[in-house]
Amino acid sequence: MRLKAGLLFASDSRTNAGVDHISTFRKMNVFEQPGERLICVLNAGNLATTQSVISLLRQRCAHEGRHLLNVASLYEAAELLGRTLKEVVARDANDATLGQGVDFGANFIIGGQIRGEAPRLFHVYPQGNFIEATEDTPYFQIGESKYGKPIIDRVIRHGSSLNEATKCTLISFDSTIRSNLSVGLPIDMLIYRSDSFAPAAPHRVEATDPYFLKLSRGWGEGLRRVFAKLPDEDWFGG
Amino acid sequence: MRLKAGLLFASDSRTNAGVDHISTFRKMNVFEQPGERLICVLNAGNLATTQSVISLLRQRCAHEGRHLLNVASLYEAAELLGRTLKEVVARDANDATLGQGVDFGANFIIGGQIRGEAPRLFHVYPQGNFIEATEDTPYFQIGESKYGKPIIDRVIRHGSSLNEATKCTLISFDSTIRSNLSVGLPIDMLIYRSDSFAPAAPHRVEATDPYFLKLSRGWGEGLRRVFAKLPDEDWFGG
After folding, report:
1. Which residues of B are less than 8 Å from A180 in CB distance?
2. A31/A26 Cα distance (integer angstroms)
3. Which of A204, B100, B155, B219 is the most exposed place for a label (fewest CB within 10 A)?
4. Per-window interface: A 188-217 vs B, CB < 8 A
5. B6-229, what's its fold?
6. Rounded Cα distance, A148 and A153, in Å
7. Which CATH class, in words, describes the domain spanning A6-143+184-206?
8. Is the ipTM of this complex over 0.85?
9. What is the pLDDT of residues A177-218, one digit of tens each?
């Protein structure tokens, strides 16, 4: 989400993956220079593809040339991510492998702030092209997104606070987790206040997190209360 | 939905279709002999496929042999629907047409009651095989189902009343309609009370339906009220 108040990134951690790397928060990866830039990348889709893209992006930060730690804008960061994605897919998805019916595709969300710019947020498609969040469309979802979309559509506006955004995001994940086994706790969250350039402090919400449990219970009870109070119609004409 | 109290069928009517036939309620088709059997078929997917399947099923009711108006059980009705679906797909989806990347698939829900049996409900897959609803899984969805699933999962149980089921179904459609343009009003609904064998009386819920408007507004306001009352967490440590 890209709100007036800042950015909120969140990802679940249900995956068939094996290896996690240091400073890799499962489906959330942070590239930062505190005081100067923070870039957060979320991924969904083919794990081999997403891991390769992240590995290449990170590896290249140590070398010459353009990389996520020296590009001048978030737009360039999204373009670099898209190009790296195309590079990996072109390498892995040749005629021989495509015949096996494997989907090499992956979606990414990349956002953050680079000094000199306002916070920005992009959705990079499997084809490597990308769109940017606006005030009218302040959020993107990738992966198993549909179950949790209605609540976001109802409550999140560009002017929502970061606390509201966090609450809504956790409720949205809770709805998805209840209806679909492919999404699961813990949830990794990164909250970034506009123009703070503070070091990233990701927060991991485990199944036992008291706030998450409170929200989950309160939301479920609240929904059932609202539902029960809504009028019945007599469909059998008395 | 197959509940203790009876069956509830509902379908939206957003489609690229052209032609509607008499006694065809858009994506809802009823086969009945009041006093003896009621069978309701809902469809989603390729329109050419679903129309052909329904046309063949209906046409064959006027002829000799097994058809929906003389099969002895709902299980046989589901099997017949699955076989007709396979027949249509085998006819239309040959090597030449498959190469065009068209998806000929369709999903069906078929349910009802035939005298001598309890009400039953089946989901027929694009492959023609099918599963039956149970007390643990009292409902099926086909088509654009994910947005509206969480509310059903939260409130519908085998013991829910038909009025509750109707209320929940309309709220579920409202959530989907708000988040996805491919689903739209009006909604066709058919409510069947167990063992009534009453003539089908489908109800069409239009955009101006006062009950639907009351539910839609009340649910939206209720959700926002519940959301606002849930506690905020201070993510920045004071």
Report:
1. 146
2. 14
3. B100
4. 191, 193, 203, 211, 214-215
5. Glutamine Phosphoribosylpyrophosphate, subunit 1, domain 1 (3.60.20)
6. 9
7. alpha beta
8. no
9. 887 777 778 899 999 999 999 999 999 998 899 999 999 999
